[in-house]
Amino acid sequence: MSAGAPGSSPQLASGVTVHRVMGTETEYGIIAPGLPSANPTLLSSQVVNAYAATLREGLGNLAGTRWDYTDEAPLADARGWRLDRAAAHPSQLTDEAPVLSAQEIARERGEPADAAVLMNLVLNNGARLYVDHAHPEYSSPEVTNPHDAVLWDRAGDHVALTAMQRIASTPGFSPVHLYKNNTDNKSVSYGSHENYLVPRRVPFGQLAASLIPFFVSRQVLCGSGRVGIGAANQAPGFQISQRADFFENEIGLETTVRRPIINTRDEPHAVAEKYRRLHVIIGDANLSEVSNYLKLGTTSLVLSLIEHGLAPLPELADPVRALQSISHDPSLRTTVELADGRRVTGLDLQTIYFSAAARACTADADPQTADVLRRWEGLIGILENDPMAAAGQIDWVAKLKVLQAYRDRDSLEWNDARLGLIDLQYADLRPDRGIYHRLARRGEVELLVAQADVERAAVEPPRDTRAFFRGKCISTFPAQVVGASWDSIIFELPSQERLQRIQTREPLRGTAALTEQLFEQAADAEDFLARLMSGPEPPMAP
Amino acid sequence: MATQDHKSTAARTEDQDDAQPEPLPAPTGAQESAKTEGVDDLLDEIDGVLESNAEEFVRGFVQKGGQ
Questions:
Q1: Cα first-last separation, chain B
Q2: Are the beta carbons of A237 and A328 closer than 8 angstroms?
Q3: Residue A529 parent element (H or E)
Q4: Would the pTM of this model clear 0.80, i.e. be above it?
Q5: CA-CA-CA-CA torsion for A309, A315, A321, A324, nearest 10 degrees?
Q6: Cα A479 from chain centroid?
Q7: Catalytic pick from A132, A148, A153, A423?
Q8: Most buried one in A84, A132, A518, B52, CB count within 10 A?
Q9: B5 near B39, Cβ under 8 Å?
Q10: DSSP secondary structure string, A238-271?
């Protein structure tokens, strides 16, 4: 309960480091092969409800939690203004309930409109599982480092797989397949986002300027590979990134149309005066744990460089074109133009950022920062020399190696449907059908987290962020927690007429160190809240 | 493809030689030995799990837009 002086900001580390508050979001591709015309929102709700059923069965409790939209502000722009509601694309209104309501879904299923159809769940591990647009989405709990981000991201895949298996074994339901990818290769893309907590004192323009060339080039390490060129798959071929062809702008508020390399949504889900949440929408969904680890680790490092005024500023002449040129050349030899007229490869750009980070990190850098630097440098070297030699670490290379082997054996052209199927099935979450998972089982790709840890992370929150408080509230008081969001937990107590809303606006409070004892000592929810309210800052989580 | 396999193994070994004290687990012995297996065997395995009608399956994978 000793939270420190009111207003103090807990810090993870000083110096240039990969450690910071971060998290991931995955929108899974979804189909029911037996029901080709099924409504995707309906299928997505099946995933949420199937996982809820699994929780009910296993634990005997469930907070079928409402999302608390009070603090959502999807139209606030980091550049200092707010988009008019009427001018927004309907899909930008993420602070409203989904297009197809729970009642409409119940009707579609032939159930009474008041049947309990869940569109949202807050999980015991502090994550959110919900229906976002026409996809099921898992938003990971907040963690403090890239390794944990990989672990709780994989926990999301485990949650999705559990739901899929539940649906497949439920009589009367047609099996649903989930894919961790970003496009249907027809014209549509869906996202896998990253979130990084950044001090608000860092000017947004400075963040954007240093991040654009980094985001344009980091795909060489963390692209997931795609069969097909162009947003509508207009030309045959292979490219490094799933997402590159869907980006049209450098900076903007949109996430579903006219996608920008830098997203300006200013929705900190934390004390707004102190923090930004940098919402990164340009990444590919990664199956490879090394690609995912480096995506998160190098991005966090570059943010740290920016915060310390040490980030390089290689200005690109045309960032969107450069993003696509680099993606379209798996040989990695394509050069893109800088504003000063020089031409560089994607690997050259990554080397510029790596060198700045290596210079800034002293010999006593923390172990994970040192590990990210070592892997970053090692893989840049391997990719310079022979890209295919990185198949054990990098998603797009692992996928390309399988595709190339098929092309060699069966003399397939890039427009052959079988190559399209391999691209798709690489991302199939089922361990028996997913090609990535087959490669992993064969020992062909390097793993960073153990399966037992993934399964634990699906039900246990991280201990070092407010996700601990959120997850433990939900698992300890499932009947009394009636709503939650990133920065609030809502209790309904029999003795209180009004709902009790506990704010959790400091991401590094609500940790196990600060609250575990409270959970152990409280006799029940009433006692818990009473103890919480008598703490140093009643309206804030300790 | 065999050449690429060898290179892949070499790169991994180099990586490991460089290893520093670090919480992340290194690849296991089983992973290393599996890498020497042929690509043919891998393709046979994948042949066995691919959806049956590639053309139809790929055409049927239609998504609504997302973020």
A1: 37
A2: yes
A3: helix A525-533
A4: yes
A5: -40
A6: 29
A7: A132
A8: A132
A9: yes
A10: EES-SSGGGEEEEEES-SSSSEEEEE-B---SS-
Segment A131-161, tens digit of pLDDT: 998 999 999 999 999 999 999 999 999 999 9
Q: Identify whether A386 is a catalytic site residue.
A: no
Scanning every residue of chain A, which has its alpha carbon at the shortest distance from the alpha carbon of B30?
Answer: A443
Per-residue pLDDT band at A55 (split at 50, 70, 90): confident
Whole-angstrom distance, CA of residue A193 vs CA of residue A281? 5
User: What average pLDDT does this structure show over B18-43?
Assistant: 57
CA distance A150 to chain B (A): 12
d(CA A541, CA A535): 9
In tens, the pLDDT along A375-407 reads 999 999 999 999 999 999 999 999 999 999 999
Residue range A329-357: average pLDDT?
98
d(CA A196, CA A18): 11
- DSSP of A365-432: --HHHHHHHHHHHHHHHHHHH-GGGGTTT-HHHHHHHHHHHHHHHH---TT-HHHHHHHHHHTB--TT
Q: Please tell me the distance from the alpha carbon of residue A414 to that of residue A230, in angstroms, as a whole number.
A: 14
DSSP A346-364: HHHHHHHHHHHHHHHS-TT
Q: How far does B55 lie from chain A, in Å, by closest CA? A: 5
Task: Provide ipTM, 2 decimals.
Answer: 0.89
pLDDT digits (tens, 9 = 90+) for A98-116: 546 666 666 666 655 555 6
A109-134 exposure pattern, b = at least 16 Cβ within 10 A, e = fewer: eeeeeeeebbbbbbbbbbbbbbbbbb
Region A482-509 average pLDDT: 93
**A86 falls in which pLDDT band (50, 70, 90)?**
low
**Looking at the complex, does the CB of residue B2 fall below 8 Å from at least one CB of chain A?**
no
B67 in contact with A, Cβ within 8 Å: yes
Record the tokens describing residue A39, joined without a space.
């409504």
